[in-house]
Amino acid sequence: MEIIQIVGLGLLTTVLVLIIREQKPMFAFLLAAFTGIAIFLFLIGKISAVIGVLEDLATKAEINLIFLKTILKIIGIAYIAEFGAQIVRDAGQEAIASKIELSGKILIMVMAIPIVSVIIQTVVKSLPA
Predict the structure, then answer these.
(1) What pLDDT was estimated at residue 64?
(2) Rounded Cα distance, 39 and 18, in Å
(3) Is the whole-model pTM more than 0.85?
(4) What does the alpha-carbon distance between residue 33 and residue 108 come to, in Å, rounded to a whole number?
(5) How many CB atoms lie within 10 A of CB 1?
């Protein structure tokens, strides 16, 4: 029941942040940021297992692993951009958080170009001449 541990850590940190914020706002922010990083590191093993299963499925389905790796990179960019934006937003910097999200979207679009071009080529080849 890892979710109970994660929620427990989140609730405990929230209470501590609310108490500490009055006296030391910078320390409260750091505590919240490090808790988010700790939760992310706790989940790295789970993420790795999911990636392994997806790679096995792609190999069995004879899907080019380059496409799977690109999709996984896109998903990673989305999660990292969201995580970073939330931390910056917690510090009260909404404008910077928005820029992080925009950067993530642009990087996702750039990463998706090869997949989109293959899809378009496949559709064009299947159309009657």
Answers:
(1) 85
(2) 19
(3) no
(4) 25
(5) 6
